[in-house]
Structures are given as structure tokens and as C-alpha cells.
Write a structure and sequence with these properties.
The chain is of the alpha/beta class. The protein is 32% helix and 25% strand. The radius of gyration is 23 Å and the shape is globular. The N and C termini lie far apart (68 Å). Bound molecules: flavin-adenine dinucleotide and 1,4-dihydronicotinamide adenine dinucleotide (NAI).
Length: 462
């Protein structure tokens, strides 16, 4: 039996970051992970592999659609799917090995196996029971399915199966027009699959800015994705090679069905806490299966903390990482803090979609007076040069104080551009502060400045 200051259960972005920060703060630290490799959902079957496939398929799309215009002649490359999966797996390997290296460097013990908590202060892995003054649960999440839909990860798949299909399907039905459905739907559409997205609501990407939703859907349609909106999936029947998705249109209750080679179920994820023994310990849970914590990630059981996808809040890697760092700081007697008002969200399609802070709908609901500064990438020289003029930056600021309240971007490098707004918001900046900051030309970031100018006397290039 070994004894630690902290044992973390789960090595995803929440768990591994917590472990590294605990070790840096001088705490004797171990991390329990049941998977073969470190890094959790994000590195193994989430953020990283999906971005590798998005990158490779985007390169193909560029070759097919834009190369000839730039004078780059010749046949567009053909797809060697097996090699694309090898590339994706290599990227995963480099990243998971990187975490293993960081664990060794920081003298963190990786306890291999599935952990449970027989009592506060103890973590059991296999037959071994380890002692820990503090335990952080970072057990993450798993895909949730629908009633009447049985996932086999071959024909009816979650994102995990969709990242590892034996061949590129001819027809794919995606259930759910959220982040996973649109990212992976884009990958396969670019690779030549006929992709139909079936969504329960009347708009895609729930929770995002309404104008962004409309523009984004229009662009995805142009890229070949078909949408069936306002449709409640009733069930999926599958054979060894085909599937049929039955749905009911909400507007008139009419029923219809779609045939597919592969069905991707992307209707959300739920916290994963199986086997931890939380019920016996009396750890309080929400009705949605999340572990309840206070503002410093403490559960109701002394010495047990929880972070990441297993608790409330957006299911995002960077949110989990920030909580991991902050919980480690709380445990070591420092002041850990996460500003939940400034957590960016990014969809890595082409173009990218990014947002931070409040949406117009939320501001209206709050009855808050606000102003909108909007700038189209059509007025941005750099974007036009790379066929990326479609899209815009929208900045929301308080009408009285000019303080930035939110930003919503659809366009080139949106996922990077959003961070200058995040930094500005952390500093409590006004739109004028951004507008007065010199931005290098020609960069996409000039569009952010122009949107800030649009909150005041007006943009220059519109
Ligand atoms: P996880 O990453 O889920 O890690 C939890 C780990 O705990 C797992 O490895 C699991 O094996 C282990 N574990 C669980 N129980 C036990 C136990 N009892 N004993 C031992 N080990 C245990 N987020 C982004 O911010 N950006 C993206 O681009 C992005 N892309 C995504 C793409 C896909 C396809 C998916 C599915 C998700 C994506 N996400 C993305 C979400 C992101 O992966 C999660 O928000 C993030 O991984 C959560 O981190 P976590 O540490 O809370 O949990
Ligand atoms: P999601 O919550 O983003 O989207 C689910 C979609 O399915 C919603 O549009 C919802 O209305 C729809 N839906 C639900 N039930 C339905 C039904 N019966 N029929 C039709 N549509 C239905 O969930 P998703 O895409 O599965 O992603 C899960 C999590 O993973 C997200 O919370 C996200 O934060 C995270 N993630 C983040 C990424 C990123 O940051 N780029 C990438 C991928 C995932």
C-alpha cells in the first residue's frame, strides 16, 4: 500500500493537469487510469483524433476546390483511408506519450487500472488499496444514446466508432446537429460521404448566437451536408451492413425514414462515474448524474473533490484543465479560481466557429442594454486572399459602459481570434480598448478590431 497527498482518478485533461499542478506544488501525487494510455477522452477518442481527421480532410477539400484557382494544377490527391487513420493514430500516440513523459518528469505515479473509493482517504485499484489525504475525481464522460437506438460501434456508432470506421461510408446519417455531429459530419462529407444530419430542434448548435447558427448552417449546406430539422428520431434498426433511421417531423407528426451505411449518434454526453462507489460513500449527485461540488470543487464528502466532465458546466477540455489546476491549488492551500463567464467554445469545422461570454438572446432575457459591433470577413484583405471572406465577427458590449460582454465569430482562425476577446474580458476591457489597440496588417485579427470599432464610431473597411 502506498500513501499519497493526492490521488486523482482519471487522466483526461482534468486529471492529468491536476496531477501535474499538484506535483509542481510539492504534493506526493498519483493518477489512476484504466485505459491503456493516458490523456482521457480528449487525447484518445476526442479532441485530438477528431482534429487530425478534420485537418487531413480539409487539406483534401482545399486541393479539390481552391488549388486550381491559385494556379496549382494537377489531379487532386486520392484518399488512402488506412493511411489517414494511421496518421490520426500517430498523432494520438505522440500526445498520450507526451503525458507519460510529463508524469515521469514531475514524479507522478501512474497507477494502472480502474479505481474505486471504498472510503474517504482510500483508493482501491485491483487488489491494492492506496491511501490519499485528498482524492480528485476526474472520471470524465461517455456518449449518451437515445431510446430505441442500440450502438454497436460498427454500423450504429458514437464518435468513438466514427473515428475508426473500417471504410469511408457512402451514406451516413448523423443524429444531432451539435459539435460532434457537425465536426465529424464535415470530415465524412469532405471525404465524399453523403451526410444527412437529423436534428430535433429547428436550429443547429443549440446555445450559440442565432446569426452564427444560420450562417453556419448555410455554409455547411454549401459544403454538401443535408439537414432535416425539427425531427425526433424514433429508432434505428440495423443489419450487419446497413441501418434505417426512423424519425417523426415535429411540425406535423409525419413519419419518414432514411437508409444509411453508418449512423452516428451525436446527441450529447453524460458524466461517467460507474464503479467509483459514490452511492455507498454518500456523494451527492445531480439529477443529470453529475457529481455536485461547491465553488472550490469539494464534494459533500470531506477530502473528495471532483472536476471536468463529471461535474456541472460545459463539457470542454480546457474547462476541465482549468478546474484541474484550480483544485490542485485549493488542496495546497492556495486560491484556485475559474472564471466561468469567460470560457471560449470552438467548433473546428471550416470555417471555424467560436464564441465567448453572453449571446444576444441571453442579454435580451436579462433585459440588459447592449450594443452590437459586427464586421464581415469580406472587408478583411487577408481573409479574401484565402477564400475565407464568408463569415463575421460580432462583438457585444454594454450600452452604457462599453464593457465587452461577449463575442461570436464565424470565419478563418475563429478559434484563435476569440482569445484576444477572452483576454480583454478577463481585464474588464471596453470595446474601445480593443478598437484602440494596433492590430498588424494583414491579419484576420483586424476583423476583431473592426467589430470593436463598429461598437463606437464605426469600422473603416465596411
Ligand atoms: P475525460 O477526458 O473523459 O477523461 C476521464 C478519464 O478517466 C478516462 O480516460 C477514463 O478512462 C478515466 N476513468 C474513468 N473512471 C475511472 C476509474 N474508475 N478508474 C480509472 N480511470 C477512470 N473538448 C474541447 O474542449 N475541444 C475539442 O475539440 C473537443 N473535441 C471533442 C471531440 C470528441 C469526439 C469528443 C467525444 C469530445 C471532445 N471534447 C472536446 C470534449 C473533451 O474531450 C472533454 O470535455 C474532456 O476530455 C473532459 O476531460 P475530463 O478530464 O473531465 O475527462
Ligand atoms: P451537443 O450537446 O453538442 O449536441 C447534441 C445535439 O443533438 C443537439 O443539437 C440536440 O438538440 C440534438 N439532439 C438531442 N436529442 C436528439 C434527438 N432525439 N434527435 C435529434 N437530435 C437530437 O452534443 P455532442 O455533439 O454529442 O457533443 C457532446 C459534448 O462534447 C459537447 O458538450 C461538447 O462540448 C463536447 N465536444 C466539444 C467539441 C469542441 O469543443 N470542438 C467537439 C466535440 C465535442
Amino acid at each position: 500500500m502506498a500513501s499519497y497527498d493526492v490521488i486523482i482518478i482519471g487522466s483526461g485533461p482534468g486529471g492529468y493537469v491536476a496531477a501535474i499542478r499538484c506535483a509542481q506544488l510539492g504534493l506526493k501525487t498519483a493518477c489512476v487510469e484504466g485505459r491503456e494510455t493516458l490523456g482521457g477522452t480528449c487525447l484518445n477518442v476526442g479532441c485530438i483524433p477528431s482534429k487530425a481527421l478534420l485537418h487531413a480532410s480539409h487539406m483534401l477539400h482545399e486541393a479539390e476546390h481552391n488549388f486550381a484557382t491559385m494556379g496549382l494544377k494537377g489531379k487532386a490527391p486520392s484518399v488512402d483511408w488506412k493511411q489517414m487513420l494511421t496518421y490520426k493514430n500517430d498523432v494520438i500516440g505522440q500526445n498520450t506519450k507526451g503525458i507519460e513523459f510529463l508524469f515521469k518528469k514531475n514524479k507522478i505515479d501512474w497507477i494502472k487500472g480502474w479505481g474505486s473509493i471504498p472510503e474517504a482517504g482510500k483508493v482501491k485499484v485491483g487488489d491494492e488499496v492506496h491511501e490519499a489525504k485528498n482524492i480528485i475525481i476526474a472520471s470524465g464522460s461517455e456518449a449518451s444514446s437515445l431510446p430505441g437506438v442500440e450502438v454497436d460501434e460498427k454500423i450504429v456508432v458514437t464518435s468513438t466508432g466514427a473515428l475508426e470506421l473500417p471504410k469511408i461510408p457512402k451514406k451516413m446519417v448523423v443524429i444531432g446537429a451539435g459539435v460532434i455531429g457537425l465536426e465529424l459530419g464535415s470530415v465524412y462529407a469532405r471525404l465524399g460521404t453523403e451526410v444527412t444530419v437529423v436534428e430535433f430542434l429547428d436550429h443547429i448548435t443549440p446555445g450559440m448566437d442565432g446569426e452564427v447558427q444560420k450562417t453556419f448552417q448555410r455554409m455547411l449546406k454549401k459544403q454538401g451536408l443535408t439537414f432535416i430539422m425539427g425531427a425526433a428520431v424514433q429508432g434505428v434498426s440495423a443489419t450487419k451492413t446497413k441501418a434505417k433511421v426512423t424519425y417523426k417531423l415535429r411540425k406535423d407528426d409525419s413519419e419518414a425514414s432514411l437508409d444509411a451505411d453508418v449512423v452516428l449518434v451525436a446527441t450529447g454526453r453524460r458524466p461517467y462515474t460507474d464503479g467509483l462507489g459514490l452511492e455507498a460513500l454518500g456523494v451527492e449527485m445531480s439529477e443529470r448524474g453529475q457529481i455536485k461540488t461547491d465553488a472550490q470543487w469539494r464534494t459533500n464528502v470531506a477530502g473528495i473533490y471532483a472536476i471536468g466532465d463529471a461535474i456541472d458546466g460545459p463539457m470542454l477540455a480546457h474547462k476541465a484543465e482549468d478546474e484541474g489546476m484550480a483544485a490542485a491549488e485549493v488542496i495546497s492551500g492556495k486560491h484556485g479560481h475559474v472564471n466561468y463567464g469567460v470560457i471560449p467554445g470552438v467548433i473546428y469545422t471550416h470555417p471555424e466557429v467560436a464564441s465567448v461570454g453572453l449571446t444576444e438572446d441571453q442579454l435580451k432575457e436579462e433585459g440588459r442594454a447592449y450594443k452590437v459591433g459586427k464586421f464581415s470577413f469580406m472587408g478583411n484583405g487577408r481573409a479574401k486572399a484565402v477564400f475565407a471572406g464568408d463569415g463575421f465577427v460580432k462583438l457585444l458590449a454594454d450600452k452604457e459602459t462599453d464593457r465587452i460582454l461577449g463575442a461570436h465569430i464565424i470565419g478563418p482562425a475563429a478559434g484563435d481570434l476569440i482569445h484576444e476577446v477572452c483576454v480583454a474580458m478577463e481585464f474588464g476591457a471596453s470595446a474601445e480598448d480593443l478598437a484602440l489597440t494596433c492590430h498588424a496588417h494583414p491579419t484576420y485579427s483586424e476583423a476583431v478590431r473592426e467589430a470593436a470599432l463598429a461598437c463606437g464610431d464605426g469600422p473603416i473597411h465596411a
